[in-house]
Design a protein that fits this description.
The complex is a heterodimer of chains A (about 500) and B (about 260). Chain A has two domains: about 100 residues, no CATH class; about 280 residues, Orthogonal Bundle (Cytochrome-c3 Hydrogenase, chain B). Chain A is about 40% helix and about 20% strand. In chain A, strand 5 and strand 6 form a beta hairpin. In chain A, helix 14 runs antiparallel to helix 15. Chain B is of the alpha/beta class. Chain B folds into two domains: about 70 residues, Alpha-Beta Plaits (2-Layer Sandwich); about 140 residues, Rossmann fold. Chain B contains nine helices and ten strands. In chain B, the strands form three sheets. In chain B, strands 7-6-8-9-10 form a five-stranded parallel sheet. In chain B, helix 5 links the parallel strand 6 and strand 7. The longest helix of chain B has 13 residues. The chains are: A alpha+beta (about 500), B alpha/beta (about 260).
Amino acid sequence: MNTLAPFFSFANASRVSWASVPVFSVTKLVRVTGELIRGGARLVAWFGVPDHDETTLVAVLAMDDDSILGVARSEPVSGSYPSLTPKYPQAHLFEREVWEQHGLVPDGHPWLKPVRHADGNAPANAPFFRVDGGEVHEVAVGPVHAGVIEPGHFRFQCAGEEVMHLEIALGYQHRGVEEALAGGPHRGTACQMEAVAGDTTIAHATAHAMVMEALAGVEAPLRAQWLRSVALELERLANHTGDMGALALDVAFLPTSAACGKIRGDFLNLTALLCGNRFGRGLIRPGGCVHDLEPERLATMAERLKTHMADVEQAMAWFWDAASVRVRFRNVGVVHPPQAVAIGLVGPAARACGLVRDVRFDHPAGWHRFSQAPVAVWPSGDIFARARVRSLEVQRSGRYLFEQLAEPVDGNLRAELPPPHPEALAVALVEGWRGEVCHVALTGHDGRFRRYKIKDPSFHNWSGLALALRGTAVSDFPICNKSFNLSYCGFDL
Amino acid sequence: MYIFDTLMNRIRRGCQTMAYPKGPAPALPDRHGGALRLDASACPAECDACAEVCPTGAISREPGSSTTLDLGRCLFCGACTRACPHGAVTRTNDHRLAVRRRDDLILGKPGEEELRLAQALDKKMKSLFGRSLRLRQVSAGGCNACEADINVLGTIGWDLGRFGIQYVASPRHADGVLITGPVTRGMELALQKTWEAVPEPRIAIALGACAISGGPFVGHPQHNGGADPIVPIDLYIPGCPPHPLTILDGFLRLLGRLEERKG
């Protein structure tokens, strides 16, 4: 049954001909999208496709419970359309992005301002929401932060220590990733996809590869799909371990922070064992994988993984045993479950609000159709929950890897891809370590990209960080920020 | 958690910092390949198999002249080494990649088959920074891979602090800047201001393909194509991202710490 009707429904990592995508008037598209969201669907992508002087709006929805995606588009429009955001806040950044990229004004959008592009020489020049009052003061941080991290600007409205409102201005990292994809794929495209967010190399490269394979109508060989799932969990392990260490550091619990810093590198080295690069660059290409995991290499990996898993579980046990750690995380930086649903949180941040939301489980594609890890969920929505979900996922990813390495899949590593189908749309979702990575490609009549849309999970989740700060002490910003650990470049593209 | 357990675990784990540079350098992953070598004399007249597969155009061949390889643009993906039928482009498995001049990254001319490794700072600068170097890191469009491996040097396995090198929060406390990313339009001003806030004498290091040339995003109009000329660069560390060992080698080479030990 198509619970996303009148949208055209399809499965993750598949292709839809552009002609079969239903066309509505823009008001109907907004109305139907809204009704479906109210009925439990989730906005996965909302973007514009240039059509002569006008723009076609495309909506991609996910009905997680039914494992289906739905797509619909508007007639070409210009000028304005009724905004979704006042009723469905998860649309707010999508609509701002469409306005910035195509000039379509969402009528009634409560906070319409640029998402990435500079006004003058810095994105943060646009006006910020301000709270006025004698006791209120404003704290401005960034773009250059105190640590070795990417640039972004944070503007806090505070009453004393308490944060009343946080507004996050990004765009400093904008490198023109999407713009360069028009007319592609180009020779450098696969490498660019690996650098959309460097710490999410595997997830973005896999999503891109799946989109290309769907457009070509050829699946990657099973061995390549299996290898991608191994690399994806290694990426998750490395990043989650790093995050646990960073959280420990921010509450001055040094044994775990020191150990996790080292173990994170150990996990990165396992990826390097597979492909030579610690982040997995050069491993995944459309059609399959470039490097193989031969029996000897696999045995080395399994052996080393055993040691590293024992190390990380030990380091996390110290952390959870310490009351001084637990008390710093409880009831700090809370996002309530209804808020999480409203703003469309994804990944560990959503699962830490009790939402069972995981692409590997909800929309399995590739190897995850055959083998899955249990979804890790914690209900409290605070930093404690986000740390807890991560440490559960470390354990489950480890177990998943042991299972996979025990039963390697035979077969080829790479398939030849025929040219992409013309006039077709393909969507691929991959559960990266931060959450849902989404790539959407639309080809023109020549089979080249007419539009390529990338969505990093951070695009949804920065709003979660802003909400988590409300009512929290400004001095708790660092631990709140670490508990989300979102991508700047993945957002800025 | 009991303090006693922590202490016992700590003792059991022992010292986890690597012996390098007193001892041998840890081996690079076998598929990493290290620096590349280009012997352009092995290239037949009409062959540009390597240039055709290079994702960033790091390899070029003008008609009538020899092939050149710019390691400042190179992502070290290895596509050229796999494509070359004549063994002209090869991997050296050498982790040492840092150079002082941009031109030293360009391979291909006779006698320039390999990159020309960085020389140490002059005597005066070395006496200032040789035992204590504070760096302010600026990510100006970096994808967080370079940043991650910069951070890794601070962990117990590498322990950058033992060389007197430290990342600091304020440019006012810094002796130099460590730049990643192609320097996006949005970060140009922030980078300039950070650089101006560092007291002289100061140094600047461009780390990763992006900061040297724009890397995977080379040629996009949304960025400056690297840190030069916004900031004058003293050390280039190529890679996408460079291996931590390559980064550490670059720092120590610049400070003359590696030659000292050999001497």
